[in-house]
What does this fold into?
Amino acid sequence: MTATFPQELKQPLVLGIESSCDETGVGIVRGTTLLTNTVSSSMDEHMRFGGVIPEIASRAHLDAFVPTLQESLHEAGVTLEDIDAIAVTSGPGLAGALMVGVCAAKALALATGKPLYAINHLVAHVGVGLLDGKPDAGAAAGLGAGQLPENLGALLVSGGHTEILRIRSITDDVELLGSTIDDAAGEAYDKVARILGLGYPGGPAIDKLARQGNPKSIRFPRGLTQPKYMGTAEDKGPHRYDWSFSGLKTAVARCVEQFEARGEEVPVADIAAAFQEAVVDVISSKAVLACKENGITDVLLGGGVAANSRLRELTRQRCTSAGITLHVPPLDLCTDNGAMVAALGSQLIMAGIGPSGLAFAPDSSMPVTSVSLPAQA
Amino acid sequence: MLILAIDTSAVASAALISDDAMEGVVDSFATEDTRSHAEVLAPGIEKLLAGADVTGADIDAIVTGVGPGPFTGLRSGIATARTLAFVWNKPLHGLMSLDAIALEVAESTVSASEFLVATDARRKEVYWARYTVTDGRLPELVDGPHVGFASELPDLPVFGAGAGLYADVLSADPDFAGTQPNAASLGQFALARLAAGQALLDSTPLYLRESDAQVPGPRKRAL
Ligand SMILES: [Zn+2]
It folds into this structure.
């Protein structure tokens, strides 16, 4: 039988598995201490396609899983017998990619007899904020180990998602305040980088080039900011805290074509800067608005786009003027990884929440209200 | 010798195979449907082991079907098999999944000395392979596996669910018109081959198709 969990365990040793997009991650934490964070990325294989190809990512997960697991155990200096529990991302994410991690995690739980937690990927991004600072492991988002600020929000921006969350309790009370209704912000970066001939991944390329451009030279639209979507604080519109980036991408393509049609040189750096400004402006302003109107005083930034210098800068500036504290974990913990899954698993165990068993299915659209899956009867 | 066999190239299935058991099969399970691998496979194996009072330590080798089969389902079994083999530190072998049906044909009253096995490859195609069989011997793979349209297969009797789907263009054997690869037959085949000193495959999946990814062409005009 699958083991049940001793509730009183204070510093559980948890192994976390992540495979929701193109990173195969295995991380190990003890309580709130990060022991290792091993990631194998298939990013290079997606390069020539200009975006993540789900089938390529899934094939890569299958081949990367056991080597990544082996490496992480080695790095942490622990054995599978030492592990108290296993945690795995069960959603949201790419269905075929999730399937590999979930099947491997179930086999791991079955073979070791350890309890398994099926975990929400988005909430796990917040979980890294609970890891305490260990200089050589590079953890710490400054949230205070094991203790989250009372009025916490999380702004998650990556190639797969763009969300603002409110976290009342990381183990059982998370609310989605707003999200993208079409492309994720990172996806918009990739698509625009392709239009501008800047290669993949688009985020770092655009961020770099944008520094040489004038963001005010062109004005690109900020999606879902018209009054009919925003409403007012008292009478909220249908997309007050939501984003849309597909119109912006089209506007960039149109702008490039207009320069070409006029036979003018395309001002790539200016377009990159203006595009980046449009993305970052609308993300940070809506996120700060959501925080102010929901009494959020601390925000954690997560997801791969947290690496973007302008997003960090403008979000920090706007948070500061609104009296909100911004917390940014080290970048290797912002991108998708197994340590965040382990960190959330550890919190669930310390809160006495039971494991998920072996019968659950991965859920590519798992809502944030579901932090972990309960065991099926 | 005790083998844990797993195949998810079509349905999800697992079996415990031992030369001490009657016809080699200690116990086995297989789902009816082809879309619930992630949910049923691990609990199924857990039950299988518990029912036979067997632990990982008792198992001598793990065998996994390596397809061909629909990708996501196929990977569930291989990911499971690779992980179990790693944790239990046991040898892991692969077997072409269509071999499972070929063995059942060879052990049946069917008298064909040369035949095809076909399964559903979706998108109006089948996965197929060609076998020969001589009395009392294991079926021998002589061509394949391939993926293609049923109408383009060699003119031979065809066994397996792929034949049943396209019975209008294939000479499908009605007794095998719904047969899917399963771990019990696959494990028996593996045991027989290991006993005969024959090599098995590694666990590399036989996708037979590329990932469908398209390198983007020139930019589409937005105007
Ligand atoms: Zn993520």
